[in-house]
């Protein structure tokens, strides 16, 4: 509009060659000025228009709104090597540093809405680290505290991070899930104890011995625990393995984001499973959108899920030969691998599974750091091993998505420790991807 008005004005002033020299010079000066004005106006408009079209630049309302909507990136080295587009969902960019932020948020929000958790309450969880860190990140935003029970063979920096976040941390020896002192079972007890302790405190304040209820828990006696603050408003066991809020976090969030970021043009999805929430939520959503999308599991050593998916029987080679280990997860990868079917994993829609090894995960982590600048944790590295295996199975020209669960920052003492790997005979040696049969 501005340009058209300027042209009309110039025509009215005599662009027919009848202007005097001085008038012509004046008109020329005016023309240059108008041209400059138009150029500046158009440039300003284009910049403002471009800025207005950018996504995700709006201000977030607290840490909770910063969870999710993570970038989906092309992993260049793996894509170039396989002839597929291998894409990684950068979950390590969540505020708490992992994919588990989504789960923690969903669990806490649903618990508050249902009344199972109250502001001032304590969220308890048994976790190898990432979910606990996410709960400790999210809980304070809702006025809650965190109590974590963690196996003592988990990387020590996870406990240090939890304590820095203000969580109460119990480190316990790894035992079978059937044992009463398995870290998950202890966490469940802590929630009940917190409810009983809160009930005692309330009755003392009311000076009333009548039976009362806190978060649905009824007490016929009092049990004091120094683990809980005096203003404790009861406990809630997050139960990430069996709580289907885990599944819903990925069915409602991660899956739709992947679909939108790929414009629905993907051929396969692959991920490892611990609780099973990620692989179940994403696979279910994607296959509802397009049944032709193939979804796969990648499983570490010691886990029975590979056998369950491929053979329908839950056992591992080691167990079948009577070589049951003290720690049933014979792997250095943390947070993935399990020997039972959780409610979350039972929701998964899988077309097959691949077995990964510790060496492959270690080599993959070093390869990606060297070639892509990606500093990833053990489960992320295993997922990338799975992505290459899928690419090899379905052939070039396909788009494959996986999850980059967390960074290597919380794996410094073990998975990323040279001495630790050397003691296990896992010092990385590969120059390229020959450990996956790619020369």
From TrEMBL:
One function term, GO molecular function aspect: cysteine synthase activity
Membrane-traversing stretches: 27-48
Domain of life: Eukaryota
GO biological process, one term: cysteine biosynthetic process from serine
Domain Tryptophan synthase beta chain-like PALP, first and last residues per copy: 65-406
Pfam families per record: PALP
Cofactor annotation: pyridoxal 5'-phosphate
Keyword Secreted: no
Catalytic activity: O-acetyl-L-serine + hydrogen sulfide = L-cysteine + acetate
EC number: 2.5.1.47
InterPro entries: Cys_Synth/Cystath_Beta-Synth (IPR050214), P-phosphate_BS (IPR001216), TrpB-like_PALP (IPR001926), TrpB-like_PALP_sf (IPR036052)
Keywords: Membrane, Pyridoxal phosphate, Transferase, Transmembrane, Transmembrane helix
Protein family (similarity comment): Belongs to the cysteine synthase/cystathionine beta-synthase family.
Protein name as catalogued: cysteine synthase
Lineage of source species: Eukaryota, Viridiplantae, Streptophyta, Embryophyta, Tracheophyta
């Amino acid at each position: 509009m501005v340009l058209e008005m300027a042209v009309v004005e110039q025509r009215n002033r005599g662009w027919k060659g009848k202007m005097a020299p001085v008038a012509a010079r004046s008109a020329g000066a005016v023309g240059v000025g108008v041209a400059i004005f138009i150029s500046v106006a158009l440039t300003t408009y284009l910049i403002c228009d471009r800025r207005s079209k950018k996504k995700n630049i709006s201000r977030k309302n607290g840490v909770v709104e910063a969870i999710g909507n993570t970038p989906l990136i092309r992993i260049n080295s793996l894509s170039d090597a396989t002839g597929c587009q291998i894409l990684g969902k950068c979950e390590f960019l969540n505020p708490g540093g992992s994919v588990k932020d989504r789960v923690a948020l969903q669990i806490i929000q649903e618990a508050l809405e249902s009344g199972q958790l109250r502001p001032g309450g304590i969220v308890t969880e048994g976790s190898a680290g990432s979910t606990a860190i996410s709960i400790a990140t999210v809980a304070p935003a809702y006025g809650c505290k965190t109590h974590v029970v963690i196996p003592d063979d988990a990387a020590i920096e996870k406990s240090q991070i939890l304590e820095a976040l203000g969580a109460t941390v119990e480190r316990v020896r790894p035992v079978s899930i059937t044992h009463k002192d398995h870290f998950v079972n202890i966490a469940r007890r802590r929630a009940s104890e917190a409810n009983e302790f809160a009930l005692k405190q309330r009755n003392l304040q009311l000076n009333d011995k009548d039976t009362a209820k806190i978060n649905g828990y009824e007490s016929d006696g009092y049990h004091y625990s120094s683990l809980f603050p005096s203003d404790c408003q009861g406990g809630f066991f997050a139960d990430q393995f069996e709580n289907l809020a885990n599944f819903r976090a990925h069915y409602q969030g991660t899956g739709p984001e992947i679909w939108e970021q790929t414009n629905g043009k993907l051929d396969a999805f692959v991920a490892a499973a611990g609780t099973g929430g990620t692989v179940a939520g994403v696979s279910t959503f994607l296959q509802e959108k397009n049944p032709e999308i193939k979804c796969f599991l990648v499983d570490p050593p010691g886990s029975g899920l590979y056998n369950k998916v491929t053979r329908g029987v839950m056992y591992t080679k080691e167990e079948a030969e009577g070589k049951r280990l003290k720690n049933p997860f014979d792997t250095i990868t943390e947070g993935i691998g399990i020997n039972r079917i959780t409610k979350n994993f039972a929701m998964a829609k899988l077309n097959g599974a691949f077995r990964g090894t510790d060496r492959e995960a270690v080599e993959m982590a070093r390869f990606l750091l060297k070639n892509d600048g990606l500093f990833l944790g053990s489960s992320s590295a295993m997922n990338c091993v799975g992505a290459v295996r899928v690419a090899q199975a379905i052939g070039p020209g396909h788009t494959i998505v996986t999850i980059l669960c967390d960074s290597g920052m919380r794996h410094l003492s073990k998975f990323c420790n040279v001495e630790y790997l050397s003691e296990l005979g896992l010092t990385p040696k590969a120059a390229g991807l020959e450990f996956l049969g790619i020369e």
